[in-house]
Write a structure and sequence with these properties.
Strand order of the largest sheet: 1-2-6-3-7-16
Largest sheet: 6 strands, mixed
Strand content: 15-25%
Order of helices and strands: HHEEEEEHHEHEEEEHEEEHEEHHEEH
Number of strands: 17
Shape: elongated
Radius of gyration: 24 Å
Mean pLDDT: 94
């Protein structure tokens, strides 16, 4: 179908596999994963077909669901409690949306699950429909265990565009006053437990100046040049952040700041009156983002705008937040950390640089960890895949949680 070479970056190192590990995952897990991959839940599209499928699957098992919609009712979160236990339960959380495949050179149809050499290919196999599929495949085992500790399933929309949907799910849970032991967010970690990630704030900056012919620059306020001055200031701030707080458990142990998009100009002989760019910073859990914002706004208000308005009173610079999610720092000694540590794959303690919904669960008072099948290096790429080995490890992980909760005193 294409000339794309499906070779991928090496996986992160892991501990030796447990003896007697099965070679292939359960057929039910694969069947459900195949159906989930077939739903095109790229974030710009609706996820309701996938939500309806999950709701029907649970309804067949007499499990009620709670649905929370976005404003247009084109997308929805799903929450369900599996089991009749009245104790504090464990949330298994995943997002239903995936990133686009536009412009990527795939070796097979990204919305048809395909297996080659022990790898399962398809958009979302790694990030993160495999975890959702296995959680659903294990629902019958959860019911059969009849544990005093129930399991909760929390599946969200629009995680890939800023962790938007999960807020409504958590607001609904707050109204229900649900008491839980904690949450496992099944993002790809090679089934190792991660207890932290950076927070992220991203802004769309719009610069409004005054246009003129390029032969009369003194009459204009050049929006490209002003925007570039601000980008240069952000680069200076980035260098300062590199000298700030460090956390060696992150691959990049300091707060980062970078500009990712810049658009401006209409002609080679016209000084532009507008420019637009996007920048972000990813901050350590120990770092307060408010002073970072304040320094940027102070530079705009005290340096850039006064100079612009001396030429053109209509000049303006606006900063529109477009992504904002908090960092995760699982509290030391959290119950969910102790529970998951028993069943997760051993590995060097570390945190992840990519964002997840775990930090938002944490802000809502629900201690959370990250642990799921797949390698983040294989996500968002053409020929995204998860290995059979990772699926088996995830199945065993959830089986272990079910057994541990069944043995837990009421």
């Amino acid at each position: 179908m294409s000339s794309y070479n499906p070779s991928s970056p090496p996986s992160l190192p892991t501990a030796p596999l447990p003896p007697g590990l099965r070679l292939m995952p359960d057929q039910r897990s694969i069947d459900i994963l195949r159906q989930l991959i077939a739903f095109d839940t790229v974030s710009r599209h609706s996820n309701l077909q996938m939500i309806d499928f999950i709701q029907d699957y649970l309804r067949q098992r007499k499990i009620n669901t709670r649905i929370t919609f976005d404003d247009d009712r084109r997308k929805a979160n799903l929450f369900a409690t599996v089991g009749q236990g009245k104790g504090r339960g464990i949330i298994l959380s995943g997002h239903t949306d995936v990133v686009p495949v536009d412009g990527q050179d795939w070796h097979s149809d990204p919305f048809v699950l395909s297996e080659r050499d022990g790898r399962y290919y398809g958009r979302g196999t790694c990030d993160m429909k495999a975890f959702i599929a296995i959680a659903l495949a294990k629902v019958d085992a959860m019911l059969e265990a009849d544990s005093a500790t129930p399991f909760h399933l929390a599946f969200s929309y629009d995680e890939e565009v800023g962790c938007l949907g999960v807020h409504r799910l958590l607001e609904d849970l707050a109204r229900q006053q649900l008491q839980v032991l904690g949450c496992v967010v099944g993002e790809p970690t090679n089934m190792q437990m991660k207890t932290g990630h950076k927070g992220k704030r991203a802004f769309r900056c719009q610069v409004t100046g005054r246009s003129a012919h390029s032969s009369t620059p003194a009459a204009a306020v050049n929006a490209i040049e002003v925007g570039s001055e601000l980008v240069a200031f952000l680069r200076t701030q980035s260098r300062e952040l590199e000298q700030g707080p460090h956390d060696p458990l992150f691959d990049v142990p300091y707060t980062t700041m970078t500009t990712t998009m810049f658009n401006a100009g209409i002609a080679t002989n016209t000084i532009p009156a507008s420019s637009e760019f996007v920048f972000e910073y990813r901050y350590l859990p120990v770092q307060d983002p408010a002073p970072i914002d304040q320094r940027i706004r102070h530079y705009i208000d005290s340096v850039l705008l006064p100079e612009m308005r001396r030429k053109a009173e209509e000049s303006a610079i606006s900063l529109q937040p477009c992504i904002d999610y908090p960092a995760l720092e699982t509290p030391a000694g959290a119950e969910i950390q102790k529970i998951v540590a028993v069943r997760a794959r051993p590995g060097q303690q570390s945190k992840v640089g990519f964002g997840t919904e775990a930090g938002i669960f944490g802000k809502h008072g629900i201690d959370s960890v990250i642990c799921g099948p797949g390698d983040i290096n294989h996500a968002h790429r053409p020929d995204e895949f998860v290995t059979a080995q990772q699926l088996v490890l995830c199945e065993d992980f959830i089986d272990g949680l079910i057994a541990d909760m069944a043995a837990r005193p009421a």
